[in-house]
Amino acid sequence: MPLLSLAFTLASTNRAAIRTEVFDYWIKEAPGTPSVTNSYHYLVETLSDGSEIYLARPTRLNKGADFKILCRKHALFHFKNGNDRPPNHEGLFAKFKSLITSLAEKTELLTALRRIWDCENSAAVVSSLVLFRGNVRAERALLLAKWFFIEQDVTYWTQSGRHMLRGAFEERFGPLP
After folding, report:
1. Residue 163 pairs with which residues in a beta bridge?
2. N or C: which end of the chain has fewer CB within 10 A?
């Protein structure tokens, strides 16, 4: 099972264009054979501490357009055997909760999350942080949220997509500013 590692950076700033851009990468994947399944790792984010967020395809769901979001070079997202462990929604909510210790921090972080949800350039969003400037935990939480929103858009495109995850955030933290 060949593993190909590729990198890509999204340039698009709206849901439809992001979805098209992601699928444009995937459409170039080599077809498998009855005895060979090609696997891909797409490096999509490099954080300020050098850790990385990447997408792994295919996954066990076999829906054709599925992917796992994984973090490389970060101990929190590893199994005991050393393999990368995918974060999940509940872990993402917990990460956001652990970052918020004041109303000002909540407002800044949730405003940044809403900007990510609106498909703004994530590097610009992270660099605009004041209270969380240089905080790699906040950077990681926002960039993971970005890819969870995209995952929801790809999986539930003809439905509400990223709206479901936003609703789950708002149930826990209140409306996004």
Report:
1. none
2. N
- The DSSP-derived string for 15-80 is HHHHHHHHHHHHTTSPP--SS---EEEEEEEE-TTS-EEEEEES-TT--SS--EEEEES-GGGB-T
Instruction: Label residue 64 by pLDDT band (50, 70, 90).
Output: low
State both tokens at 42. 């797409």
- Residue 11 tokens read as 């340039």
| Confidence category of residue 60, pLDDT binned at 50, 70, 90 | confident
Please report, for residues 6, 84, 176, the alpha-carbon distance to residue 16 in angstroms, rounded to integers and kept in the order given. Answer: 22, 29, 22
Tens of pLDDT along 15-43?
Answer: 999 999 999 988 898 888 999 888 999 99
Strand partners, 41: 5, 56
Torsions phi, psi of 55, nearest 5? Answer: -105, 140
Provide the terminal-to-terminal Cα distance of the chain, rounded to the nearest Å.
Answer: 46
